[in-house]
Each structure stands twice: as C-alpha cells, then as structure tokens.
Amino acid sequence: xxVIRREGSLPGIASSGKTSSVSHNEVARLPDRADLHPSLxxxxxxxxxxxxxxxxxxxxxxxxxxxxxxxxxxxxxxxxNKTAQILSVIQTGxxxxxxxxxxxxxxxxMQGKLSREVAMKKSSNPxxxxxxxxxxxxxxxxxxxxxxxxxx
Length: 152
Description:
The protein has a domain at 2-54 and 63-100. With 152 residues, it is α+β, with helices and mostly antiparallel strands. The termini are far apart. It has helices at 24-28, 36-43, 72-79, 86-92, 101-110, 116-122, and strands at residues 2-5, 19-21, 44-54, 61-69. Helix 2 (36-43) runs antiparallel to helix 3 (72-79). The chain has a 4-stranded antiparallel sheet. The protein is built from 6 helices and 4 strands; from the N terminus they run ββααββαααα.
C-alpha cells in the first residue's frame, strides 16, 4: 500500500521521497501521539492498496485495489484520532474515486475475473460472496421482466 503525502511532512514516519508504504490499517493503529495525527491529517493525499490474487481462469493474477483519497472527512478523522471510522469514508467516497477492497473484490467477481472462493478468503465481509453473483451480462434473479403481461 502506498500513502501519498506531501514531502517531508510526517514526523515519526520514516520514508524516502513522496510516498511511503503504510497500510490503511496501520494508519488506523498509529501511536497516540499528539504531534503525529495533525501532521498526517494535513499531509495525506491518498492511500492506494493493490492485492494480487489468482485469476479465475487459473492463468495469471488480477489486482484487487483499495483507494482512499485525502478528503476533509478523512483528514478530520485522522486529526481527531477516530481512525476506526476510515472504512465508512471509503464506502461513501465513490464520487471522489474511493473504493474499498470489498467493492473491488465484488466487481472482479461480477466481471468473472475472480472466483467467489478467493474473494471470500480476502474479504472483510465474506458473507457477501456466499450467494453466487450473476454471470457477466445477465440480470440478477428476481430483477427485470417477469415474462408475463399486465392486464390493461
């Protein structure tokens, strides 16, 4: 995972250049230091995670990603040391390009690129993959037309 930040702005976190490897879970477990949270909240620009998983075809790998953008809501949570709520920012931040790992896994399963079994092992909410996803290009059961006609 890469945290994109302003150069030279994170005291106490060693890094070289403009990015440093820190998982979003590590951001949530930052030490309770009064000087660290404000510095990180002001400097974080985004977090990008890539997890390579075996492709459903058995040939090659597919990347599942998590994207977190340094929006004001995220910065406030970090500043106030409420980092356990970061996932909720990701889940509501699609308009900013954010995506949770579970959303990415779900998309890959729906596209037929990743098996449900692999997704379940990597997901923080495996139950969402217990019901088979509809095949790409088909409608989910119970949605769409019923095949009957309505009386006028």
